[in-house]
Amino acid sequence: MADHDVVVVGGGGAGLRAAIAIAQTHPRLNVAIVSKVYPMRSHTASAEGGAAAVIATGDTQDEHAYDTISGSDWLADQDAVEAFVAEAPRELRTVEHWGCPWSRRSDGEIAVRAFGGMQKMRTWFAADKTGFHLLHTLFQTSLRYEQLTRYDEWYVTRLLVDENRVHGVVGIELATGRIEAVTGRAVVLCTGGCGRVYPFTTNGNIKTGDGMALAYLAGAPLKDMEFVQYHPTGLPFTGILITEAARAEGGWLLNKDGYRYLQDYDLGTPCPTPVLRSMELGPRDRLSQAFVHEQRKGRTVDTRYGPVVHLDLRHLGTAVIDSKLPFVRELCLRYERIDPVHELIPVRPVQHYMMGGVHTDLDGATGIPGLYAAGEVACVSINGANRLGSNSLPELLVFGRRAGLAAAEFASAAATRPGRAIETQVADERRRLERDLLARRDGRERIADIRTEMQHTIQDCAGIYRDSESLVAGADKLQQLRERFGKATIEDTCRTFNTELVAALELGFMLDVAETIVACALRREESRGAHQRTDFPDRDDARFLAHSLVVRDSSGLPRVDYLPVTLTRWPPGERIYGR
Ligand SMILES: Cc1cc2nc3c(=O)[nH]c(=O)nc-3n(C[C@H](O)[C@H](O)[C@H](O)COP(=O)(O)OP(=O)(O)OC[C@H]3O[C@@H](n4cnc5c(N)ncnc54)[C@H](O)[C@@H]3O)c2cc1C
Fold first, then answer.
1. According to DSSP H, which parts of 297-368 are helical?
2. How does strand 123-124 pair with strand 148-152?
3. 550 with 222: CB under 8 angstroms?
4. Crossing angle (nearest 10°) for helices 13-25 and 130-142
5. What count of other Cβ atoms lies within 10 Å of the Cβ of residue 152?
6. ∠ CA 352-356-360 to the nearest 5 degrees?
């Protein structure tokens, strides 16, 4: 059993930022960073477009706050948003001092670009590989601190909780199959999102909602799980993201008639600034919904990978594409054999991000003392019903740092060490993994088949549009899949890099997360942001200006409750976007 002061689960942007914050402010604390992949392989590396923070003259933090709140369809907590916009510029400057190569203007100042739903240009970027550079910077900075011990390629299967306090985690060292506890007086979950619950997603294979399920199974509530973001421009078949930066630089969305169809919808940006008036820069929820309407009108293009519209960058020219969007060109050439300098890019909406996650306060504290969460796994909430693009990367930094500091304070003050009950839990977990999973050979069902059915079930009932009938059917189907999962086979009993075992553990977590998404979507009888109910098409502030909180009841089923939204200075209004 390895013992530390704080255990950070996750080596992506949020996890590394939390760990560095602890090392810098509490140098005596010993911190574990446990990650199921080598940290640089975390999903943060694939972020492309940029990170929002007010820096330009003529822009204000209040405007950034307003854009975020109205973009969230007034479901964001305004105290959280105010803290976020105030701290984001300092965080982006800090990573610049640590070496992040932000793109610059010709006069040497930090360059900013437009982004969807933002009234002003405030998105910092490092060409179109922002996340890669950001994660590299954080990773290299983390190497400076000897008190950070890494557990790379360790898969966390359970949180250790006793007497309503967290005491660490149990994990499998994937290279050997060794099952060990990594204990600590505080745990920070930074395990990212759960896009792989859906069949068509921009998310990497590892984004299976493990941390959301770990917290949920340990008794911590999840918040706003029904709010699932679709990004309007994914490549058909692979789901690879074509960043919003392509539209920010002036790209157009065209239907099958070559017509910029967004002019028919209330989707433009709320902005009087001419450079940002492009309707392609509307918020993601509305752009994805517009695609569905175009499809219903028969104005999308049919392909073997489903209906698409076209993203047109041809008028931008080679120089802009190669300097500002080189990765977009590379992805199109490599995965579609299309050169965007001369050809149209086929795109369709694709699951991209989870607004919901583990319920936390402004310092990342969850419902369980000692347990913190930050990054995409968490719901603070600054994103409400719809996240604005480029707010997530600064969120990792701002709230990763805050959660790290709070966990460090908690660990410094907490004296007790884990007792007998924790040893029993570790032994139980070891038995479960060895007996139920590594030795399970008799079932007939395959993990991959159940996973595929789960993904299609959730897409059909909790996609861009939902209704009561499909959600009820989806909840029933998920129950059946859970029963079948209990009898599924794992043929590989090898202990070295047993990817089938990991897939089974991930599927178990995804089934938990999927159930919470459906339960929350069914209870919310209104349409707001990314949650669109065809049977309840209007926003209903009287009943639902509130966060959903879902916990697991004694029979193992999700139970949904509500928590009022925190309003400070911006009363709920209409999301009216001019053209
Ligand atoms: C293609 C793409 C492009 C994006 N572009 C942008 C953008 O331009 N701007 C923006 O603001 N946002 C963007 N986003 C969103 C943003 O990148 C993510 O929300 C963010 O990077 C998530 O960071 P994280 O630290 O929370 O999690 P991640 O970076 O996903 O890291 C999760 C970590 O948790 C670990 N982990 C998970 N489960 C376990 C387990 N069971 N045991 C041990 N370790 C575990 C993983 O190993 C990993 O290290 C983009 C997202 C995608 C998918």
1. 317-324, 326-336
2. unpaired
3. yes
4. 30
5. 17
6. 135
pLDDT at 439: 76
CB 8 within 8 A of CB 188: yes
What integer pLDDT is reported at residue 275 of this predicted model?
Answer: 42
Bridge-based pairing of strands 148-152 and 154-162 is unpaired
Pairing of strands 357-359, 378-379: parallel
CB atoms within 10 A of CB 64: 27
Closest CA to 17 of 533, 292, 542, 372: 372
Quick: pLDDT tens for 113-146.
998 889 999 999 998 899 999 999 999 999 999 9
Max Cα–Cα distance, the chain, nearest Å:
69
> Can you read off the two tokens belonging to residue 522?
């069914």
122: in domain: no
For tokens 């990497």, name the residue: 204
**Do residues 62 and 86 touch, judged by C-beta distance below 8 A?**
no
| Tally of residues, the chain | 579
Distance 491 CA to ligand 1 centre (A): 30
What integer pLDDT is reported at residue 579 of this predicted model? 38
Residue 277 C-alpha to ligand 1 middle, in angstroms? Answer: 30
- CA 220 from chain centre, in angstroms, equals 18
Q: Which residues pair with 528 in a beta bridge?
A: 531
Locus of tokens 């985690």: 169
Q: Atom 44 of ligand 1 has which residue's CA nearest to it?
A: 35
CB atoms within 10 A of CB 561: 12
For 17, the token pair is 């930022």
**Distance between CA atoms of residues 278 and 268, nearest Å:** 6
Q: Which atom of ligand 1 is nearest to the CA of 125?
A: 8
Domains of the chain: total:
2
Its domain, for residue 298, covers 233-349
516 in any annotated domain? yes
Using CA atoms, how far apart are residues 233 and 307, in angstroms rounded to an integer? 12
Residue 514, domain CATH: 1.20.58.100
- With a cut of 50, which residues of the chain have pLDDT below it? 268-276, 578-579
Q: What is the DSSP string of 517-543?
A: HHHHHHH--S-BTTBEETTB-S--HHH
pTM: 0.96
Q: Within a domain: residue 458?
A: yes
CATH number of the domain that residue 307 is part of: 3.90.700.10
Question: How confident is the model at residue 437, as a pLDDT?
Answer: 72
Sign, Cα dihedral of 101, 104, 108, 113: negative
Q: Ligand 1: which residues within 6 Å by Cβ?
A: 9-15, 34-37, 39, 42-44, 46-51, 130-131, 155-156, 190-193, 202-203, 206-207, 210-211, 241, 353, 375-377, 390-393, 396
Report which protein residue has its CA nearest ligand 1's atom 5. Answer: 47
Considering Cα of 459, then 464, then 470, then 476, what sign does the dihedral take?
positive
Residue 403 in domain: no
